[in-house]
Amino acid sequence: MAVSATEAVAHIRSGTNIFIHGAAATPTPLIEALAARRDLEGVRLYHLHTNGPAPFAEKGRDKEFRSVSLFTGAPLRAAVQEGRADFVPIFLSDIPGLFLSGAVKLDVAVLQLSPPDAHGYCTLGTSVDAAKAAAETARVVIAEINEQMPRTHGNNLIPFSQIDAFITTNRPLLGHHIEAESEVEARIGELIADLVEDGSTLQMGIGGIPDAALARMKGKQDLGIHTEMFSDRIVDLVEAGAISNRFKKVGQGRIITSFINGSQRLFDFVNDNPLVSFYPCDWTNDTSVIRKNPKVVAINSAIQIDLTGQVCADSIGYRVFSGIGGQMDFIRGAALSPGGKPIIALPSRAMGGKVSRIVSSLAPGAGVVTTRGHVHWVITEYGAVNLHGMSLRERGEALISIAHPDFQADLRRELAETRNIHI
Which of 52, 232, 234, 390 is deepest in the core (most CB within 10 A)? Predict the structure, then answer.
């Protein structure tokens, strides 16, 4: 029997470990009800990126709630920076194992689900990722059952009988909307699309550069999708007939993902659509699975890359911006795929053009997400270079060639000063 949000979160006690469902599946009413309580202390909230406000991480609440980001989004950046919340650097593929192994013992999983079917099963809807492992290992499952949560296919079922308390809602999901692309994003998108052959298997994230690249692939043939997430532009490619998934070795004929984030159009697309299969991220992001597909093109972004090829993608100096996520999972998987192309794509400049994203040394505190041994293709609006097998001298020269012209002379000077490499 459905209860109020206040009654549902009454199951939560002080000192417990809680998993919070994320992205478009963020269970906002339950989060708000939990944050409204003033009788708790020492509650740890484990989550990936969440959509919408995070009232549990507001100033003055850190003794009651301790947010633990496994991938940090905009609502938690300030709290992590100010020491009121924690961040765990971890591969996306490793997160379910934290719960399944008992390394993190979950007391409660707070989820947003699709309504139960005639057989008594709900689905995890738009986000399976680590939520399946959380639901399987938590002692208590509290759910928002939302009439507007898509019913999705794959390894994502939650028996209604497993739910200890639930509320019912009928509200639109909090999503992400495509923004107009910039000239820089358009140029990078063109360069990426030029590298994508017919029959390739794609992995991409969300944002201007992946969207720009996908927008230029409508003329491709027999593309496949095996990714940790996707957004609206994949719907465009399906409608254009560019995606068939017929050459994939894993999930042939189907789009494979772990979660989605986008507009209502995307949510409608995946609703009861057998073309799309959702799986936990310890499987979608398993390098041994990824590498089985042919011509895997992994499209990932970066905040900075140094002249040796070290890629920072999770922090701006000491300030945590996002997380490791699935970048390394797919960069390595693509490198091992027959004909695969791991790609790091980034604008040449940041801060309104004031600084170069290609640097002689990463900023103090910056994290290396993709090592220089793993990096292959690097693309800016000034070109595409493949660093694989290159010496430090060759890498420096190649990366400077795709840096913004305003910074190339400084980069050459710094390379000479720091590594005695003159080019």
Answer: 234
In a domain, 396, yes or no: yes
Catalytic residue, candidates 144, 185, 228, 381:
228
> Considering 104, 134, 169, which residue would you say is the last residue of a domain?
169
DSSP symbols for 337-353: STT-EEEEE--SEEGGG
Tally the domains of the chain. 2
Do 146 and 201 fall within a single domain? no
Domain span at 96: 5-169
Sign of CA dihedral 281, 285, 288, 290: positive
DSSP β-bridge partners for residue 65? 43
* Each residue's pLDDT tens digit, 135-175: 999 999 999 999 999 999 999 999 999 999 999 999 999 98
Structure tokens at 94: 């490793």
**What sections of 139-280 are H helices per DSSP?**
183-195, 208-215, 233-240, 264-270
Residues β-bridged to residue 111:
143
Task: Say if residue 47's pLDDT is above 90.
Answer: yes
Q: What is the pTM of this model?
A: 0.96
Is 228 marked active-site? yes
